[in-house]
Write a structure and sequence with these properties.
Elements lengths: L3 E4 L5 H12 L3 H10 L7 E8 L2 E13 L6 E9 L8 H15 L4 E5 L11 E2 L4 E3 L12 E5 L9 E5 L13
Parallel strand pairs: 4-5, 7-9
Antiparallel strand pairs: 1-2, 2-3, 3-4, 3-9, 5-8, 6-8
Helix pairs in contact: 1-2
């Protein structure tokens, strides 16, 4: 499959939402993405599409976050979606890598994700738990390694002690429960 990655525009909203719903098999993630894209507290956002010709086959969204007691520029990855017919082809990984590269170019120091503990480490994410950076809601001990981060510059995570503050939309408790 030959695909390209580009930044999504407002004209792409219906395709972005289709990818999210098709990838997850239900509308919850598409609704989250739509709400995040319309949430001023999530700005700035980075929304990327993987395109196979004129068809969107993957999407990733990064939204801005802050860390209490710190002026470090940070983002959170949520969600990542690839349509079923294009899964297991490396598209999700390429979306992650492209997004991280673009965020680094824009001065972002840390990117967080609450995600699958065997998938995201392949792309440089590591559990946050050795550091004193808390998720917006408590992460149960048995899944604490799902709360991960990646440092994009020379920021020393041991110098940060605070809680990640996400956008109003992502700050809803239902987004932090499995």
């Amino acid at each position: 499959m030959n695909y390209t990655i580009r930044e999504a525009t407002s004209n792409d909203l219906s395709e972005v939402l289709r990818v999210e719903e098709e990838a997850f098999g239900y509308p919850k993630e598409a609704e989250l993405v739509n709400n995040l894209l319309n949430d001023p507290s999530a700005k700035p956002t980075l929304s990327l599409l993987a395109m196979d010709g004129d068809e969107a086959i993957g999407h990733i969204l990064f939204t801005s976050v802050s860390i209490t007691g710190s002026d470090v520029k940070a983002s959170i990855l949520a969600p990542l979606a690839v349509v079923p017919k294009a899964q297991n082809m490396g598209i999700g990984g390429k979306l992650i890598q492209e997004g991280l590269q673009r965020l680094k170019q824009h001065g972002v120091s840390i990117v967080f994700v609450l995600g699958h503990i065997t998938y995201y480490p392949k792309y440089g994410f590591a559990p946050v738990h050795p550091h004193a950076i808390n998720a917006p809601y408590p992460i149960p001990e048995e899944v604490r390694d799902a709360w991960m981060m990646q440092i994009l510059d020379d920021t020393a995570p041991e110098t940060i002690n605070g809680t990640v503050v996400v956008s109003d939309e992502l700050g809803k408790p239902e987004h932090w429960q499995e």
